[in-house]
Design goal:
The complex is a heterodimer of chains A (248) and B (432). Chain A has helices at 42-50, 72-77, 95-103, 121-133, 149-162, 179-192, 205-211, 229-234, 236-247; strands spanning 2-13, 16-27, 31-35, 57-62, 65-66, 80-82, 167-171, 197-201, 214-219, 222-227. With 248 residues, chain A is of the alpha/beta class. In chain A, the strands form two sheets. In chain A, strands 6-7-8-3-9-10 form a six-stranded mixed sheet, with helices on both faces. In chain A, helix 3 crosses helix 4 (121-133) and helix 3 runs parallel beside helix 5. The longest helix of chain A is centred in the middle third of the chain and has 14 residues, at 149-162. Chain A is globular and about 55 Å long. The relative contact order of chain A is 0.18. Chain B is mainly α and 432 residues long. In chain B, strand 3 and strand 4 form a beta hairpin. The longest helix of chain B has 39 residues, at 393-431. Classes of the chains: A alpha/beta (248), B mainly alpha (432). The interface between A and B is large, with 45 and 33 residues.
Amino acid sequence: MTVLELQDIRKGFGAADVIRGVNLSIMACERHALIGPNGAGKSTLFNLISGRLRPDTGSITLRGSDIIAMPPYRINRRGLSRSFQITNIFDRMSVWENVRAGMLWSAGERYAFWRDVDHAREVGARTDQVLADFDLVDRRDTLAGILTYAEQRALEIAITVAGGADVILLDEPTAGMSRAETDRAVALIRRISEGRTLMIVEHDMSVVFGLADRISVLVYGEIVASGTPAEIRNNPKVREAYLGEEAR
Amino acid sequence: MSGALIAHGSLAARPAALVIVARYGPWIAVAAVFAGLPLVFRSGTALTVMSLMGISIVFAVSYNMLLGQTGMLSFGHAVYFGLGAYFAVHCMNTVITGGLPVPLPVIPFVGGLGALFFAILFGWVSTKRSGTAFAMISLGLAELVGSSALILRSFFGGEEGVTTDRTRLLRLFGVSFGQQIEVYYLIAVWSFVCMFLMFKFTRTPLGRMCNAVRDNAERAEFVGYNPRMVRFLAFCVSGFFAGVAGGLAAIHFEIANSAYFGATQSGNVLLATFIGGRGYFFGPVIGAVLVSYLQVMLSDITEIWQLYFGLLFIVMVMFAPQGMAGLLMMHRPLWGWRALLRVLAAYAIALPPAATMLTGVALGIEMTYRLTVKAAEGPDMSFLTVPLAADHPLAWLSAATLTIGGFILFRLTWPIITVAWASADDRKEQAR
């Protein structure tokens, strides 16, 4: 079943066409990696899907309903959550509060100003659980702004998945991480994406081929190939445009 | 914040009675202070000052709901204070002329509702933007309301304002509110209840998301929240409590006039909140108490008290941007250590030179004021009850000596403080 569908998406900034007619179908519960050279438009595509930017033309549907004119918070409430390439967290709140902020809406707390949320057991327990999953329990009362880089990257993803969204978009989750940190992050991403739909932008090919069920290759704003890791590896067009350069 | 979380976690194992004391202890203490103050300070002036403090606390904490909690810098918060006061006064006058069965203690609530109505109206426009744009819109709205006060005379009463008589409302239990002590307790109860509610607000889902929007409005959007809605709701709640404060002020002064929503009033609440410390819930409480006290006491001592007030603000912004509350909380890790005593002793050594220096500065300022602005009254003046001539070289020499000498001595005490802090840190390391 198709969860997320992009049809003929185009986006330009001034004279430059960054996304030039992208068609993409993401199936339920698949891990779909988006790869491509720098400047291919991967992050822009994420911004278009998540509502940060609005496409010039085309349609984006999430489980059959059009989300193209929606602001990010409406898209998020429909179960699509994203992380950012450049860490985007709540600096002056504790780690615990950061994660909880990620789940308040979906927990039904919304804009309530008549309920004490600090003593809400279920939200608290779920937050503790996410912290445990992300190995952040020791840091629960630390201000997010003073975490180490790797911890902030982990928190970035923790906030993204805390709300239980079933479509997760991760934008270069392992960027800037060491080998060991990357391995741990990949294991974590594999675990948290169990039973959910994952879309991931990643530069590290070992991460991509180790994690993804399907891969799409974006070159200069167009998808040049889409398929299983084996198909992508053997696709001559991809080898020429992208992987070939790395192999040399 | 994090402290509260730790406390909450460790409470589970304790008996129920202790839990209640630990959770509500500070509030019981605050209530006791409110109730007990008039027993200690009995004079009429003291009662007036304490009433003003109670009003300022509500106003400043409501302001910090915007500034500290949601990250919105408003230059026009007095608009809601003033409108609250006007609604309260008009409501009181309607009750009096109509002989309606409404007692005085509910009037601040009416002030709050009136302010809330306009906060919804103005907030809907101004919270569309954040940051500088919001600050500018708030300034514009303050000007708008300020000028309409002089145009819409039937509601605002022109320059003289609208007066009322708080003693002519329905009496409950024979209390007429003719005496200041009765008014004080009315203000104290409202102030306490408002503080408690505003503290509780910080613990609600909306209150927590205010912090999130303050820190990173964009990310808040990607976890399902509309930052504009969060700002708008915070603005409305804040406006309501500012209106309650205005209603209390109207009861206290028995008048509402355009000074209530002037730029000075908006500025004062910003200064009080900043001096007290916007990063902590009790920061603006400290600020409100301090500023109310200074306004009354300093203005008795010197005519240019606002200048000292401004200097204090500048010093705080430059050297202690976390405010008084931040300075206090800096010492929290020292609690339970002998180091606290050591640090306090170091402060005690530094205090006399610092006071000497400040005295010298103040003397210089006062003499300059005397010789320039008050030249017509001659050079003879008194400074801290000491008579002196402002044009005498010896007076200037002593001002310079106090300032420079005080500074040099004060500068010499800095290493003592540094050493005391360092030893405190050492102890903490050892304890680990």
